[in-house]
Write a structure and sequence with these properties.
- The relative contact order is 0.08.
- A hairpin with a 2-residue loop joins strand 5 and strand 6.
- The protein contains 24 helices and 8 strands.
- Strands 1, 2, 3, 4, 5, 6, 7 and 8 form an 8-stranded antiparallel beta sheet that branches.
- It is of the alpha+beta class.
Length: 633
């Protein structure tokens, strides 16, 4: 994505000017980084954690000050009486001791690089629940609780606490809170409760003390720090410095061209659409812009996030085997997204900003591919359709991709990278560009790593490109094969850690995913031939076909007609571009014949079907029209 944007930004810049612009941009970045160290910003030691307990002697009781733990235990037991706690459900919070916190203060990705003894170091305090506090450990798999029927303690309303060490530079500032806090040091603490927001000024006698905020009940705690004049000035200066740095870097690197403007508009529209969907309450997940994403219990998104958090801690401690293992000896869940989440936490802390920023370019990628294989105005039409959900059952629904992205699934990112791989593959063929070929192979490998259902289509794409390049420029096969071979890391992981050969994931032939095996088709066809049209196999086949062709509440006849048009375009195509698009689309649809076809699983297959039909129609009916797409000619 960065390379794509840079290519647009440099569209009208000379090489020398670009080098100097980059040098100036790095200088600005250095000034901002150094400025953060020179400004007298407060550096407050913060610790936080989830508070649950089932018996005495657990880590929280051993490591927290006795008066503080005793008070929190009283509040917790009053809210969740031991006699009424859930115990039997697999998703009950109290099912085992392994589901309890294992240390006083939880790990925070915000403090990953600061080597803090508590959770992190902050320059301010302002929160009203653990989501605005950004208590990321709620997304560990040990907290994979139910939704109220299975667990009386639920993930969105988990009990928690936070603590801060008072430093000398905070004297004269005020800590304001609603709820209960405890102030003290060592084993001597006093409790202070405010029914409404109240404040206490920090005095010299408070330096070195610790303040605990107790958020055991839902919406029971809100804390903020009113900084003294010196610290407020430093915070304002730091904000101004960051804003100035961002604007300066943008002006230095962005070339004011039509293409740059178009990329900015589409990417900006994608980002604003994400904000609108969340702010309008369309997607029932927590706000990823200003609060911590809290993933659903019993959901794949929590699994990926939970593994990613633990993997980052392994890496920080130099345990690279633990990091590469990814939480599983043999991949059962999709492999790649957990590594993506780990990298996201390392760079962006307790946020989902990496996925958010990357996915906002989905409309840009769609536009670039469609423009390349047909016409710019068709690319713009499809981008508009995507935003407004016109053709939702054909994968033209930005809301659907947004929904699965916010739930932490890999499909939106994998599909975007696969579309980008097709674009660079076609560009490699047209320009005989080795960098494009290498990037195509890398993107295919990454897309498969994120979503293994793309393996068949990925192999088809690479095979067609390789066969075509074999006769035109054999040297191009080297970068294409070298980068795409990274897909072999999946079976190598399974062999090394699990001691058995599994090509992709162990769930690939599970009845939950391989819902319509080939032998069921064979039995169903045999039953129809023998006149037993009401057999279970026939019913299963018809139900699967209805699910496949009626995906996202679409019309079965319309989707059947689209498949027929796809086959006709693939067979009668006159250009390599349309043949490649058609064959890859058929490979995607072939996967849906056997594996789960509904919802997120079929989005890319139907979107590629539309792109192929458009490219074929443009080739057949507009071949004499001017085209900016070399591959379509």
């Amino acid at each position: 994505m960065v390379g794509e944007i840079i290519s647009e930004c440099w569209a009208t810049s000379s090489g020398i000017r670009s080098i100097w612009n980059w040098a100036a941009a790095f200088a600005v970045l250095s000034v901002v980084t150094i400025g953060a160290q020179l400004l007298p910003l407060p550096r407050i030691q913060e610790g936080h954690n989830i508070f649950v307990r089932i018996s005495d002697g657990e880590a929280l009781q051993r490591e927290l000050p006795a008066p503080v733990f005793k008070r929190m235990a009283e509040l917790f037991d009053a809210r969740y009486p031991p006699a009424k706690r859930c115990k039997d459900s697999d998703f009950c919070w109290a099912r085992s001791k392994s589901g309890m916190p294992d240390r006083a203060f939880a790990f925070s990705a915000d403090g990953a690089w600061s080597h803090t003894p508590w959770s992190r170091v902050v320059s301010g305090i302002a929160f009203d629940d653990f989501r605005t506090l950004r208590l990321g450990d709620i997304n560990l798999l040990r907290y994979n609780w139910g939704d109220g029927d299975d667990s009386d303690v639920t993930r969105p309303d988990a009990p928690y606490f936070a603590a801060w060490r008072i430093s000398g530079d905070l004297v004269g500032s005020r800590i304001c809170w609603r709820g209960e806090t405890m102030w003290g040091r060592d084993q001597s603490f006093a409790s202070f409760t405010n029914a409404e927001r109240g404040c206490r000024e920090i005095s010299p006698e408070d330096v070195g003390a610790t303040v605990f905020g107790l958020g055991i009940a839902k919406n029971s705690l809100a804390v903020d720090l009113e900084k003294n004049a010196r610290l407020q000035w430093a915070s304002n200066a730091w904000l101004a410095l960051r804003i100035s740095g961002v604007l300066a870097i943008a002006l230095l690197l962005a070339a004011p061209t039509a293409q740059t403007l178009l990329v900015a508009v589409l990417a900006g529209a994608g980002f604003l659409a994400l904000v609108f969907y969340r702010r309008a309450g369309i997607v029932d997940v927590h706000d990823i812009l200003t609060r911590l994403p809290v993933f659903y219990g019993r959901d794949d998104g929590l699994t990926y996030e939970g593994h990613g958090r633990v993997m980052l801690q392994h890496a920080l401690h130099g345990n690279w085997a633990g990091f590469l293992r990814g939480g599983e000896d043999v991949y059962y869940y999709q492999p790649g997204i957990r590594y993506f989440r780990s990298l996201e936490k390392a760079i962006f802390g307790e946020t989902a900003y990496f996925y958010l920023l990357a996915f906002s370019f989905f409309p840009v990628v769609l536009y670039r591919l469609v423009r390349y294989v047909s016409a710019p105005w068709l690319g713009m039409f499809l981008a508009v359709f995507l935003f407004f959900g016109i053709g939702a059952s054909f994968g033209l629904d930005f809301y659907a991709y947004t929904y699965w992205m916010l739930r932490g699934f890999a499909e939106p990112l994998a599909y975007m990278l696969f579309l980008l791989a097709i674009f660079y593959g076609l560009q490699a063929v047209d320009r005989l560009s080795m960098p494009d070929a290498a990037l195509c192979g890398l993107l295919v490998a990454t897309a498969i790593f994120l979503r293994t259902n793309l393996a068949i289509a990925g192999v088809v794409l690479l095979a067609m490109l390789a066969f075509h390049l074999l006769f035109r420029a054999p040297r191009m096969l080297v970068p294409l094969a070298s980068t795409s071979a990274l897909t072999l890391l999946i079976p190598l992981h399974n062999i090394y850690f699990g001691k058995r050969l599994v090509l992709l994931t162990s769930v690939v032939d599970n009845k939950l995913t391989l819902v319509m095996p080939p032998w069921v088709y064979a039995r169903a066809l045999a039953d129809i031939v023998t006149g037993n049209a009401g057999s279970p196999s026939v019913d299963q086949m018809l139900a699967h076909l209805n699910l496949w062709l009626g995906t996202e509440r679409g019309s079965v006849p319309v989707h059947a007609a689209a498949l027929a048009a796809l086959l006709w375009a693939t067979i009668s195509a006159k250009t390599f571009t349309v043949r490649l698009l058609g064959t890859v689309s058929c490979a995607l649809q072939f996967t849906l014949m056997f594996w789960r076809p509904e919802s997120r699983f079929g989005l890319l297959a139907w979107l590629m079907t539309v792109i192929t039909i458009l490219a074929f129609a443009w080739q057949k009916f507009a071949r004499n029209a001017p085209s900016s797409a070399p591959a379509a000619a």
